[in-house]
Amino acid sequence: ESVRATISHRAASWVLASALGRSEPERIDREGIMPALSNAGVLAVSHLLETVSGLQRPVVLLDGIHDWLSAGLSRELPVVTRAKADRDCGSVAAASVIAKVARDEEMVDWDARHPGYGFARHKGYGSAEHRDAISRLGVCAIHRRSWIHPDQSDPGQD
After folding, report:
1. Cβ neighbours of 45 (radius 10 Å)
2. Distance CA 111, CA 119 (A)
3. Per-chain mean pLDDT for the chain
4. What is the largest distance, in Å, between two alpha-carbon atoms of the chain?
5. ∠ CA 91-87-3 to the nearest 5 degrees?
6. Going along the chain, which residue ranges are E strands?
7. Is 125 in contact with 32 (CB distance < 8 Å)?
8. pLDDT per residue over 114-148, tens digit each?
9. Is the pTM of this model over 0.70?
10. Model confidence over 76-105: pLDDT tens digits?
């Protein structure tokens, strides 16, 4: 088991609750990365608020300097942004590693469904191996077509 996975399991054992939200590649292509990120965050926060009862004054702490979440929330909820929060705040670091491990596991599953892309190794990041696979095989269901570099052809597109 990787160090990151070990840390994720430990983090999951000491947080009150955690939730993941995601937006599909089609949504990212259609709406853009920031609205899709907001959608995923809203899904996660909504799930947490439904799961954890009795919170007196919940606050969301976002890593970074931009509040991409508040506009999508259906209720008023304080959102605090903090640069480097994943480095400086235990709960944000825990959320970050839990999310990354979940994504890594999802990419391993996608690797089995779409062999040849190397998802289990590069986890979908834009490595040379990943770009080469897109050039050879075209895009598959999890690729964001709007993010494909112009020199990476999609044999399925005319």
Report:
1. 21
2. 5
3. 90
4. 55
5. 80
6. 60-63, 79-82
7. no
8. 999 999 999 988 899 999 999 999 999 999 988 77
9. yes
10. 899 999 999 999 999 999 999 999 999 999
Q: Tell me: the pLDDT tens digits for 24-78?
A: 999 999 999 999 999 999 999 999 999 998 888 899 999 999 999 999 998 889 9
- Number of CB atoms found within 10 A of residue 147's CB: 13
Token pair recorded at residue 73: 């929330």
Record the tokens describing residue 118, joined without a space. 């190397």
Q: Taking 80 as the threshold, does the pLDDT of residue 150 lie above it? A: no
> What phi and psi, each to the nearest 5 degrees, are found at residue 61?
-110, 120
Stretch (H or E) spanning 121:
helix 119-122
Residues 6 or more apart whose Cβ sits within 8 Å of residue 45: 19, 21, 60, 69, 73, 77
Residue 154: which pLDDT band, with cuts at 50, 70 and 90? Answer: very low
The burial of 120, by beta-carbon neighbours within 10 Å (0-12 exposed, 13-18 middle, 19 or more buried), is given as middle
CA–CA separation, 15 and 157 (whole Å): 45
Which one-letter amino acid corresponds to residue 58? P
What is the C-alpha to C-alpha distance for residues 62 and 68, in angstroms, rounded to an integer?
A: 9
Question: What are the tokens at 6?
Answer: 């070990």
* Owner of token pair 């939730």: 19
Buried b / exposed e over 65-86, threshold 16 CB at 10 Å, is: eeebbbebbeeeeebebeeebb
